[in-house]
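TA notes, week 10

Several of you asked for a full example with nothing omitted. So below is the full record: structure tokens for the whole chain, then the designed sequence directly under it. When grading your own attempts, check the secondary structure regions first.
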């Protein structure tokens, strides 16, 4: 089984880190094909960046579909271009925000999201409403760090994320935490130990969701909203 994992931004080091996390949880015989959004913004930190990342994302999905991948993981917490990707793909397409939020509802009665910059907060709040989990999402919080700080040694980014999680547990009375950025994928084990609650990374969860859906023969419906586009 081949699963396409796309980092929609143009930072290859982040793709490598995300792919490592994905491969760590992938089942036997599952190959993770990792791709970077060449020509896209270096990080996705707003609506404009999100829109500019979609063309490269769709190109990778189109190429992978021709190669017969079983499914696709879109590894950006804004879940950019998901509907368009589902029109192109025959297998399941999972965004990491939807995967992480829905996993959180299976593990706890409430959760909070900790993301990077304050400008990401309203985007994620809207995603929680769209996915029908806003009544379980206690709060979307920002650690006030740029996305690329997660790639810099000595930036203190991981400690800022941990401290924001501890505030969320104390102030929101949440039972689980969702990490609101794919660049945090390598922090889950450490953060879970540091904070004592389930800390959920959407990359690894999305990989397992795609793997499971594909394994039982389920793919994207093609009879209406996600029918193949007239022009590919």
């Amino acid at each position: 089984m081949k699963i396409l994992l796309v980092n929609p931004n143009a930072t290859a080091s982040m793709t490598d880190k995300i792919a490592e996390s994905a491969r760590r949880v992938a089942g036997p015989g599952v190959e993770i094909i990792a791709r970077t959004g060449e020509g896209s913004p270096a990080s996705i930190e707003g609506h404009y960046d999100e829109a500019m990342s979609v063309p490269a994302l769709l190109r990778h999905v189109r190429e992978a579909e021709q190669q017969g991948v079983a499914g696709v993981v879109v590894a950006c917490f804004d879940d950019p271009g998901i509907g368009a990707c589902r029109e192109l793909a025959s297998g399941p397409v999972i965004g990491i925000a939807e995967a992480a939020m829905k996993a959180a509802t299976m593990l706890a009665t409430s959760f909070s999201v900790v993301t990077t910059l304050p400008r990401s907060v309203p985007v994620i709040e809207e995603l929680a409403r769209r996915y029908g989990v806003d009544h379980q999402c206690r709060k979307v919080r920002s650690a006030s760090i740029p996305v690329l700080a997660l790639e810099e040694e000595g930036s203190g980014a991981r400690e800022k994320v941990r401290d924001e999680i501890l505030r969320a547990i104390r102030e929101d009375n949440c039972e689980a935490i969702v990490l609101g950025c794919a660049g945090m994928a390598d922090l889950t084990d450490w953060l879970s130990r540091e904070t004592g609650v389930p800390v959920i990374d959407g990359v690894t969860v999305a990989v397992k969701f795609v793997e499971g859906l594909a394994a039982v023969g389920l793919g994207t419906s093609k009879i209406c909203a996600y029918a193949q586009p007239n022009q590919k």
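The mean pLDDT is 95. Use that as a sanity check on your answer.
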